[in-house]
Design brief:
By secondary structure, this protein is α/β, with parallel strands linked by helices. The protein is 46% helix and 16% strand. Strand 9, helix 12 and strand 10 form a beta-alpha-beta unit. The relative contact order is 0.12.
Length: 393
Amino acid sequence: MRLLHVIATLDPKAGGPPAVALRLAAAQALMGHEVTILAHAEPGAEARTSKSLEGIPGIKQVRFATLPPPASLSEKIRAGQARAWMDQNLGGVQMLHLHGVWEAILRVAGECARARSIPYALVPHGMLDPWCMTRSLSTRVKKQAALALGYRALLNHAAFLHTLNADEETGMKPLGLKAPCEVIPNGVFLEEIGTLPAPGSFHAQHPELEGEKFILFLSRVHFKKGLDYLIDAFAQVLAVHPRLRLVIAGPDDGALQPALTQAKERGIDTRVHAIGPVYGSAKYAAFVDAEVFCLPSRQEGFSVAITEALACACPVVISRECHFPEVATADAGRVVSLSAQATATGLLEVLVSDDARRAMGQRGRELIVSSYTWPAIAQRTQEAYRSRARVNP
């Protein structure tokens, strides 16, 4: 089958969607499909994007097509370059998989596909969650205007909306969209986590931690991710575990300095370490050495970081808004309400003993290995292509 994935950017600074698009495409290529990814080039992102590809099984079998970044407001709205590319390259494509919602490249891809009667799936990646749609008056106005100006048609005419969990499907119901939903989660490649870095590797790379135990926050450092809750929770945890540290890993998206200021106001800034983004083996080394991974996010579609932490046998403390209740079912950590107090309580429960923590981590790894691997997920997308879009592989 000839498949085309379309995403605005593959820059890992954009968070989970690029990681998902790359791995789903690679898993489909390993199944024998002819897979291409189309994205805008991001100036200055070449090195980190290339680094993010390292170790992904099957990625060398995926073809990459890039468009120049939009150079004008007109191009950002009209996506003429994307339309020209589609006119020349959609011949023979049997199915499109679009990642995201609010980008002109996606709207144009949908329009061009419909003009040629080519079906497409669309992954909202949580962008249609009520929190994302209504968090401010200006957001509500902009999103409603965008829906009226072409994006509702993009969503309604999809062969299916690829939702990452059942909660995401429920959250979209107020929009009254016509396309059916298929719940297909994210996953991991077992090959990427098959040989993990040796314990102690992350500590060796970061002597400023002085070999002490740490809680890990690894994500895009954005207000949505709830780092402010974690800072206050960490202050409470330090009262019980005074030698613990907090490591903040990930690209800054506006929330880092407020978090560091908050830590200083709480008198815990010497125990908080911001190390910037980490990729590949350095990321897995962080999961291996962490006592617990914590993401008290205000909204998630299906966090890649949570899945990777579990796969590395690192127990997790996450908010209910991460929509991963299986963590609690498997007793692989704690799923807590969205507050500093609840986050602190969850962390203290995980940290109560090393034996209990390691057992949680092992159960988390077993959960991922049994149910959340990219080859199985790629098979599920193929079945959805067949049932929803009537595409014969």
